[in-house]
Amino acid sequence: MADSRVAIVTGAARGIGAATAKRLAEDGFAVAVIDLDEKHCAETVSAIEAAGGKALAVGCDVSDAEQVQAAVDRVAAELGAPTALVNNAGVIRDNMLFKMSEDDWDTVMGVHLRGAFLMSRAVQKHMVEAKWGRIVNLSSTSALGNRGQANYSTAKAGLQGLTKTLAIELGKYGVTANAIAPGFIATDMTRATAERVGMEFEEFTKAAAASIPVARVGQPEDIANTVSFFLDERAGFVSGQVIYVAGGPKA
Ligand SMILES: NC(=O)c1ccc[n+]([C@@H]2O[C@H](COP(=O)([O-])OP(=O)(O)OC[C@H]3O[C@@H](n4cnc5c(N)ncnc54)[C@H](O)[C@@H]3O)[C@@H](O)[C@H]2O)c1
Known about the structure:
The protein is an alpha/beta fold and 251 residues long. It has helices at 15-26, 42-50, 65-78, 102-130, 150-170, 188-196, 201-210, 220-231, and strands spanning 6-10, 30-35, 55-59, 82-87, 133-138, 175-182, 242-245. It has 2 domains: 6-183 and 221-245, NAD(P)-binding Rossmann-like Domain (Rossmann fold), CATH 3.40.50.720; 186-217, no CATH class.
C-alpha cells in the first residue's frame, strides 16, 4: 500500500476487535481503536505501537450519534481520513423471550444496529471522497436463530441486510461492504455465556468444539484474518457477502 490508509475498528479494546486492530496495523493501516472507554483501548494501542504500527485510542459509545460524529472527526484530524471501517462493537443481553426486558432488546439493537448505521453513515463521506472504502460488519451464526437470543439474533440478521444495502449504495464509489458471521470464538463474550449457564469456560469450549467440524473453537485471530482479506486491495470485487467463519458449513 503506497500511503498508509486509516482504519477504524469499534469495540477494539479486547477480543475480536483487538485482534483485528492489531492485524490491520500489521497490514499497514493506521488504526483508530474505538471502545466505550478510551483508557481501555490503551493495551491494544500499545501492542500496535510496540510492533511498529500507528494507532489512536478513541472513547466512544457507538450507539450515540454525537459521540460517533466526534470520534470520526477526531480520527480524520489526528490519523487521516478513515476509509476502512470494522463495525465490531457488541454486547449480549441473553434471555428467553418471556423473560427478555425492553431494555435487553433496546441495548442490543442500539449497539449492533444503530451503532453500525451511525458509524457507517459518518465514515462513508471519507470513503466517497477517497473513491475507495471497505466496510466489514460483524454478524454471527446466531443470525440463523439461537435460543435465548431473540434480540441478538435479530440484530445480527439485520446487520446482514445493512451490509447488502451498503454494498449496493456505495459500490460505485469504490466501496465494498461485507459481513463476517463468526461461530464460537473464545473471548470475554463467550466466557460470560459460560458463566451464565453455570459452566467452567474450559468445559464450555470443549463441549462447543465437539460439534464443530474442525474440532476446535475459533480464536479472535481467525476473524481478524478474514477481515484482513476483505480489506485487501485485491478483494475489490467481493461485496455484499456474508462469510460464515465457524469451522464448518453450519452454525
Ligand atoms: N465471541 C463470539 O463467539 C462471537 C461470535 C459471533 C459474533 N461475535 C461478534 O463479534 C464482535 C466482537 O465480539 P467479542 O467476542 O470480541 O466481544 P467482547 O465482549 O470481548 O468485546 C466487545 C467490545 O465491544 C465494546 N463495546 C460494547 N458496547 C459498545 C459501545 N456501545 N460502543 C463502543 N464499544 C462497545 C466492549 O467494551 C468490548 O470491548 C461482537 O459484535 C460480537 O457480537 C462474537
